[in-house]
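Hey, resending since the last one bounced:
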Amino acid sequence: MRTYPLYSRTFEEARALQFKIVDSATRHFTGEEALDLGDLGVRAGTNRPYQTIRVERVFAEAFDAEDAVLVRGAGTGALRWSLVAAMRPGQTVLVHDAPIYPTTKVTLDTMGCPVVVADFNDDASLKRVCAANKDVIAGVLIQHSRQKPDDSYELGHVIERVRACLGEVPIVTDDNYAATKVKAIGCQLGADLATFSCFKVLGPEGVGVVIGRVELVEKVRELQYSGGSQVQGHEAVAALRGLIYAPVALSITGATCHEVARRLSEGELPHVRSASVVNAESKAVIVEFEDEIADRVLELAPSHGAAPNPVGCESKYEFVPMFYRISATFRAKDPTWQRRMIRINVMRSGPDTVIRILRELIEEVYGA
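The structure tokens again:
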């Protein structure tokens, strides 16, 4: 299977990002403040907890942006508030020719925003659709991670092509499963707003971040005016800790995925036909068996130490590898794949652990 996984930072590149984040933190926190779990409530003159303000400044600097705001609702909330800030209800949004992520579709449907579809893998399609709908497209939504098995587009290139066709129309990117792993997210590549869940970068559940142009970020911030909408200081500090530790941890995960796929493709285990690294949506290894044993392998996997289901597909809670069914987009492309294929998210485990568990499962299935 030909796949086009996103780039993963090398260990050295990830370490450099960690150092950049910590350096920024030393510029916005005193030593005492850095050891404080955080404050509560809205403070006079700011309407925000002080620790949250400091953390947002670090997030902005980490991704070379003008401003950042933490929001409730994880990645879904971050994307929802970004779309609300960037466009009005009923306006038309340009999207990729692929299934829209379900919670994103809820936002677009709730706003009454019709969509115009173009194939982001195909420059000619993108140019043609933009030209035909230039007068109605009021915003663009681009998902950084892959939506279909054969997606190959590069985010920066798509943003560049959209700018050439549509000028300064607002561009919002969904950078879930990409932030801290790739070299640059949407706001660093020319988009107006980038969004992701802090849960996907080892942070607390329920907190998302919007990063980008100060005018639009400030609009999002204004929509979080009430005290109950505020991300409190201790939550913000937890998000910062996750952001600090995520680059190196996730770079190891990316490298492990590629090593597992290489070793399996070279024939290390019997009854494995192929193995490929994909972004579905997090980076994972798709293993195809020679026979239709996928269901039995997944049934047995938990007893061998593999997680049976995701929590956040890279959250701070997940450290053992996850053996799971292939994604809906893969099943839609070829329904027979679900009987022969499984998805392995290596999480914090090493390649030897993943391959040992898979070997044990294959031996149990075939009665070796």
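The chain is about 40% helix and 15% strand.

Sorry for the duplicate.
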